[in-house]
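Recall the central idea of this unit: under ordinary conditions, the amino acid sequence of a chain determines the structure it adopts. In this exercise we apply that idea directly, starting from the sequence alone.
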Amino acid sequence: METSINTLTAKNNSWTKLLNVVDGQAEHKTVWFLFSLIFQGVLFLPIPAVLLYYYHAPIIVLPITFGLYLGNIIVGMGGSGIRVVLGFQLLSVLINLGMLALYIL
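Accordingly, the structure predicted from this sequence is:
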């Protein structure tokens, strides 16, 4: 029983440390928002063109990619907290990379 309590405490401690790091970035929320817009605009907005033209992907990749980009704008400009901004950025990256892996591999 002692081992499971220590494991649970270690996981909780790691999660708490991650949240403390993210919360520490609250004063740089605008920088993270702008970084997210530039990062997604340069790397992920061309994905639909590549997937549609070269890999004959369905048209659904276009609204997914643009929806995530516009959602990122709404989250950043809507007054959401830093956890939401960074979490949505991570979610957008994972979904876009997942689409790339799905249609290319």
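The mean pLDDT is 89.
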